[in-house]
Amino acid sequence: MTERKPVLEIEHLSVAYDSPRGPVQAVNDVSLAIYEEEIVGLVGESGSGKSTMAYAIMRLLKGVAYVTGGSIKINGKDVYGLSKQELRAFRWAEMAMVFQSAMSALNPVMTVEQQIADTIRSHQKNASSAEIRKRAEELLDLVRIDRKHLKSYPHQLSGGMKQRVVIAIAICLKPSLVIMDEPTTALDVVVQRSILDQIQEIQREVKFAILFISHDFSLVSELASRVAIMYAGRVVELAGSRRLRVAGEHHPYTEGLLRAIPRLTADDVVIEGIPGNPPNLVELPSGCAFHPRCAHATERCAVEEPRLQKTGQAEIACHLFQGREVPQHV
Amino acid sequence: MRYFFNRLGFLLISLWAAVTLNFVLPRLMPGNPAEIMFAKFQGRMLPQELHALELQFGFSNQPWPIQYFQYLGNMITGHFGLSFTYYPVPVATVIATSLPWTIGAVGFATLLSVIVGSFGGILIAWRRGGMLDRTLPIATMFFQAIPYNWSAFMLLFVFGFTLNWFPMYHSYGTNQTPGFNWPFLSSVLRHGVLPVATIFISGVSGWIIGMRNNMINTLGEDYVVFAEAKGVSARRLMFSYAARNALLPQVTGLAIALSSIVGGSILMEQVFSYPGIGFQLNTAVSNEDYPLIQGMFLIIALCVLIANFIVDMVYARLDPRVRTGGASS
């Protein structure tokens, strides 16, 4: 895995929002790498900084949000070192994003074809109409939408179809990384399933890396090869998705998430939540942000912030695991 | 196409309703125009003469349904009766000479405020928080807050009376022969400046602020951020993605504004003695000129309906959701 080329390298990224009560640390010292053609999941509850991180990678943060530290590199290029013009050409050609609310990501007054054509023309000034037409048709074939819908307006498409069009636009310039920010949240379970299958299929065919953001733990661990779990703006665990299917030897927060997944095959369905509430990002708890809700918290947890450390096959940021070797048979 | 016929049908039905109301209302009032004229002559008119007048004005003692169909026939052929004020000039002629002035001056001023205001709104929303954004809405709001007849007086006083830059009354110089010749046309333009300016400065603020707010809303929409991310140029992003959608409520506003073009210019035309429909309507009301009032109302209704029909068509061009009747999600 290590000899593969990294597509995305995030190093010590921090993002803050200005608020009347002081700066809100939405992303706090996060480092993450994604390699070619790899699907990495990013899981966390609402407000844990998942989407903020996606916007930061795309350099789309606006208004009161700003990067306070760290660097983001795509294919070795520093995203924040590009000029405005370079950024416009770089974005979408190398990295693309499927938005959380893909339902409203399409311009209501333009046809599907116009919106695909706009994308191509913005990057390839002298693309001919015939070429664009052909490319648009191929893209629709790829996401399995009838070619006749090139002439359709967004309101004439169903939710699932709109989402597919957005995915088609995202992969239109063959980027090496596609960020998918909860791409199926607004869809019902059946459509969700078919879109996920298609994403996997297209990914295998076109070959690009995916950062898949979701709050649906089981969905992500099924799709991704590695999963990063975020809590209060920090990555608390980074592990192979196979490992995440079984409990034991995880960060206490991850254990909590695992316990919250109902098992349909179990006779006695006991779903345990994680006690307490998500943390206040303006005044983060001292030390480990999870310690007020953690059953294993010690005095050290309230004082010292744990670092992400290699623990067996995973990386975990928890004092429980530090300084001891974890048995690998789990 | 179905949409077109739908709107056309609506236009015809509303026209018919307006015409019918115009027929019923005067007949519910006591007396008729001939009797008013008869009374004016204070007994110096013979009953035969009254009867002659009644015939001339098109009144008869026939049953209502027959009168109604005669009336409909008259309306379609443009016979609105005779004006008292300009007796015996037909109402249709009075309207035909005044309507173009109003549509020209007020219509032009309204379109100008919509276009300038919308562009201004797009620009200041795009540079939100900039110099122009902080000054333009407040400056134009100041003029909007002034009653527009008062700003008409001020313009007339400053630029007409004191500085003598523009003529004080009427729509063209009395020494000009109306026709397609340069002296006449330039005279019309010079006479039109102050009336147009009055309506423009009293209306443009609403369009600027409306467009600015629509723009700020659409700029926050996901499709704008998505388009920005996919690399669309700033210019295209501003016009094809943001402004194109922000314009839709403005078009609805235009439909409402157009309805006041013909009827809502009474004060302005009075101040500038501009011989438009508002000026004539005022004359007609003060002279109890029923046929003229009736004819004016009909024409105003007609103009409003046609203007709205045109706006409906424009809206359908701009918004595909209206055209195909689909729901938006």
Automatic annotation (TrEMBL), chain A:
The keyword Nuclease does not apply. GO terms for molecular function: ATP binding; ATP hydrolysis activity. It holds the Pfam family oligo_HPY. It comes from the Bacteria. Gene3D superfamilies: P-loop containing nucleotide triphosphate hydrolases. The keyword Cell membrane applies. Keywords: ATP-binding, Cell inner membrane, Cell membrane, Membrane, Nucleotide-binding, Translocase, Transport. It is a peripheral membrane protein. This is Dipeptide/oligopeptide/nickel ABC transporter ATP-binding protein.
TrEMBL record, chain B:
The keyword Transport applies. Coiled coil: none annotated. One of its GO terms (biological process) is transmembrane transport. InterPro entries: MetI-like, MetI-like_sf. Pfam families: BPD_transp_1. GO terms for cellular component: plasma membrane. It is found in: Cell membrane. Residues 99-311 form the ABC transmembrane type-1 domain. Keywords: Cell membrane, Membrane, Transmembrane, Transmembrane helix, Transport. This is Peptide ABC transporter permease. The lineage of its organism: Bacteria, Bacillati, Bacillota, Bacilli, Bacillales.
